[in-house]
């Protein structure tokens, strides 16, 4: 089954049989999160570390932020391939950064062994509700029509050059055949504040960050960037329903160093898949607006390869580069 289809079915699958912790009784497994504490990647890693303790023994989470996630993932790439050092691999570190950074400290295609996806969080195209009303925009097609008739008169904000919001905006321009001006900010929060104050006309924001302002009516949600509409934002269509093939979602999963034995990968996949399918994990992920995903290690590896190839043209078209 294609990886993206698993996103839609992950919550409907029952759990797996238990795994004994005998082989891991005297070991400590470290999950390296290549970002700071407190974000959704860190939080979900800690949820899973707690959930797999009965099958894998002592699992700790270590934050190694810096260079867009490259520092932490390079530590995983250099670790001994024995299954005791794992890393959180995300769309940025595995699919975007290889094309964004002039020099990379690891080879995303060859330095890791896939274990399992963890979760996906939709991004959402939002407008300031007052601004949308002023322009007569009520849905995605209205925005496309207006932008085509007013070339470069609309602008959009993002958390910076090469950010998910920037790349989503450039893909929107390509696929919608429209022109709009990109205004990069120093982080996602300043970009959202600019939208709320009508400094910019639209943004592609993380659903978790935008949800409160959508619910309050300050922001108008026009579409989610996942392949299909998200159950976390009922009634809001997907970009792909108007622009077929448009997908820019935030996903992350677990990897190990390359050359980790296949039987070790299989054991880790089984343990974390069982944890991801538990009702308690699903409830805790719901609070983060993150949807648990599971697949085989092979399917996750193929998915990351496909995403890396897909983002090459998106990053290059955006003209984003970090030396």
From TrEMBL:
SUPFAM superfamilies documented for this protein: Periplasmic binding protein-like II
Record InterPro entries: BUG (IPR005064), Bug_dom1 (IPR042100)
This protein's UniProt keywords: Signal
Signal sequence coordinates: 1-25
Organism superkingdom: Bacteria
A Pfam short name: TctC
Similarity-based family: Belongs to the UPF0065 (bug) family.
Gene3D superfamilies to which the protein is assigned, alphabetical: Bordetella uptake gene, domain 1, Periplasmic binding protein-like II
Keyword Cell cycle: no
Protein name: Tripartite tricarboxylate transporter substrate binding protein
Record's keyword annotation contains Signal: yes
């Amino acid at each position: 089954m294609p990886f993206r289809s698993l996103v839609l079915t992950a919550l409907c699958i029952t759990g797996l049989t238990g795994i004994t912790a005998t082989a891991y009784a005297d070991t400590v497994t470290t999950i390296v999160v290549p970002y700071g504490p407190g974000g959704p990647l860190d939080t979900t890693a800690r949820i899973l570390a707690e959930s797999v303790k009965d099958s894998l023994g002592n699992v700790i989470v270590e934050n190694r932020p810096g260079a867009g996630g490259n520092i932490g993932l390079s530590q995983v790439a250099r670790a001994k391939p024995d299954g005791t050092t794992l890393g959180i691999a995300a769309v940025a570190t595995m699919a975007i950064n290889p094309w964004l950074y002039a020099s990379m400290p690891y080879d995303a295609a060859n330095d890791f062994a896939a274990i399992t996806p963890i979760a996906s969080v939709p991004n959402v195209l939002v407008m300031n509700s007052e601004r949308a009303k002023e322009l007569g925009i009520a849905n995605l097609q209205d925005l496309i029509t207006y932008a085509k008739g007013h070339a470069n008169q609309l602008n959009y904000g993002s958390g910076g050059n090469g950010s998910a919001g920037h790349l989503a905006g450039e893909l929107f321009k390509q696929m919608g055949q429209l022109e709009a001006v990109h205004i990069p900010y120093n982080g996602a929060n300043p970009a959202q504040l600019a939208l709320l104050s009508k400094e910019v006309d639209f943004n592609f924001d993380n659903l978790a960050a935008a949800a409160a302002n959508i619910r309050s009516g300050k922001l108008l949600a026009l579409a989610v960037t996942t392949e299909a509409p998200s159950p976390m934002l009922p009634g809001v269509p997907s970009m792909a329903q108007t622009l077929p093939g448009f997908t820019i979602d935030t996903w992350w999963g677990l990897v190990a160093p390359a050359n980790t034995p296949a039987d070790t990968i299989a054991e880790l996949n089984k343990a974390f898949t069982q944890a991801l399918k538990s009702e308690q994990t699903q409830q805790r992920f719901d609070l983060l607006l993150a949807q648990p995903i599971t697949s085989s290690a092979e399917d996750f590896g193929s998915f990351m390869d496909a995403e890396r190839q897909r983002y090459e043209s998106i990053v290059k078209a955006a003209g984003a580069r970090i030396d």
